[in-house]
Amino acid sequence: MSIRSNNTILSLSLLLMTCFAVNAETYKVISYTPSNPPHNIQIVDNQGKQKISGIFADLFTRIGEITGDKFIMVKMPAARGIKEFNLGRVDIEPGISPNWRSYAREPGIYSISYGSVKEVIIFRSGDEFEVKKPEDLFGKTVGVVRGFTYPRFEEAFALGDIERVFNTSEELLIKQLKAKRIDQIFASKASIEYMKKREPALSDLVIGDVVSSVEVMMRIHPTKLELLPKINKALKQMIDDKSIENIFAKYK
Length: 252
Hints:
The protein has 252 residues and is of the alpha/beta class. It has helices at residues 3-23, 55-67, 78-86, 154-159, 170-178, 189-198, 227-240, 243-250; strands at residues 26-32, 41-44, 50-53, 70-76, 92-96, 109-110, 115-124, 141-145, 163-167, 184-188, 205-220. The chain has two domains: 21-115 and 215-250, D-Maltodextrin-Binding Protein, domain 2; 118-212, Periplasmic binding protein-like II (D-Maltodextrin-Binding Protein, domain 2, 3-Layer(aba) Sandwich). Helices cover 36% and strands 28% of the residues. Strands 5, 6, 7, 8, 9, 10 and 11 form a seven-stranded mixed beta sheet that branches.
């Protein structure tokens, strides 16, 4: 190959790299706090620095590798995250179903679906029973994470047929359940299975019926419309090359 050809290839490569850098953007992604493993895991490393890991962090690390953009995980409680999204001060809420945010002041725009989430009812051992419809929980107290919604049960919650108790994380709800301060809780099946495998003290909790099963997407603020095709392309690639499947498997 001639020196001229080499120079031409080098020039083209530099041009592509320059265009890539110019088009790269930085986006803020909500990372719920307290931790919501395996989706959001917040730990302190050996240097005393807080580190965010988990499914969402891994997904956006890979998305950034594909798009060239930088994604910063920003810690905040779910309720505050919804408010900050409405105000446009955060750009992405990961792992959301449009049904969950249909009431929001700013519904947002959504990526393609990249997976599904099953929410289940959790009992103390010996207290379990079938829950096929809202009426099965009439007169009971159910704990849920603040900011999370369950469309099939919302009317019963609003009417007081089921008493709803809020907390800021599934981990804290589990503590209330074990202390017998609430009767049952709603939680992600993946989360409770992850925690039960790693915490022997949770072995007496019983996973009951599915109360919600939905496809999940990335919720993007409309002011970041340019991000939508990039995320969709990245997610499609990650589905095809099984990157997403491998990330989920890492946390089972």
